[in-house]
Design goal:
By secondary structure, this protein is an all-alpha fold. Helices cover 81% and strands 0% of the residues. The protein is rod-shaped.
């Protein structure tokens, strides 16, 4: 059974800290009179925080989603990088061991390393001496590579979900805000004053704006990390071919 890595605990800590920040900001906003959307029209000046809090519960939910997205982006910057997926020192060590034909030591080194490169090369080394030789090694490494790529891409599903759901949450806030505004018109029989409609209109506009503000950067980072993964996968294939190509040559000689 694999132990949980420190990075997994780091992700949990980030989420807890960001949740604490969100709850603290929500409490401060709840104690502030300017947090009431109906008072926005009565104030001489409207602060940025007052505008944000005018989104109501939907706006707070979107802001919380933004904090979660930030925590995942930080975690991905830590885990999806070259030193963790294709360690330079590991390449050097494997090159030395394979040249010396110390295959068992190389396999042990891969088992102790949790990188993408170590998983692929280690899977291939387990097939040394198999019936079909390099053909079995290729198949095993291909299957392992596909599994690792799938795992890396699954890490991005959370960000992709936030990117797609944030605008929908903003649209929900828009609908709720417009319903509130039309209810005010109905209650006053069409004689509603502007300040009476300000609350519903603020919810409608602010939530839409917040949803787009969260979704656009999140979509950018999803694309950014996918491109980074593809680049590292391509680089790994080149490195694996250089390291393991010797077994093809041994088969043909």
């Amino acid at each position: 059974m694999q132990k949980k890595t420190p990075l997994l605990r780091t992700r949990h800590i980030l989420l807890i800290l960001l949740l604490g920040v969100f709850l603290g900001a929500h409490c401060c906003a709840a104690q502030s009179p300017s947090a009431d959307p109906s008072l926005l029209a009565e104030t001489d000046s409207i602060s940025l925080w007052s505008t944000v809090t005018a989104g109501g519960p939907i706006g707070y939910l979107i802001m919380f989603m933004s904090l979660v997205a930030v925590s995942f982006i930080i975690e991905h910057f830590i885990t999806i990088r070259r030193d963790r997926l294709i360690p330079t020192q590991l390449i050097y060590d494997l090159e030395q061991l394979l040249q010396a034909q110390q295959y068992e030591e190389a396999r042990q080194l891969c088992s102790e390393n949790r990188s993408y490169l170590a998983s692929v090369v280690g899977a291939g080394l387990t097939q040394i001496g198999s019936m079909f030789g390099f053909f079995d090694m290729q198949n095993t490494m291909q299957e392992t590579s596909e599994r690792e790529i799938s795992r890396l891409n699954r890490k991005l599903e959370y960000l992709a979900f936030i990117a797609s759901s944030a605008p929908m949450m903003g649209l929900l806030g828009t609908v709720i805000g417009m319903i509130e505004a039309f209810n005010k018109i109905a209650e006053t029989e069409g004689a509603a004053r502007p300040y009476q409609l300000a609350g519903g209109i603020s919810v409608a506009l602010v939530t839409t704006c917040l949803g787009l503000i969260v979704a656009i950067p999140t979509m950018f980072f999803v694309s950014f990390f996918r491109t980074r993964i593809e680049g590292y996968v391509s680089e790994t294939e080149t490195v694996v071919e250089k390291l393991m190509g010797r077994f093809r040559q041994e088969r043909t000689t």
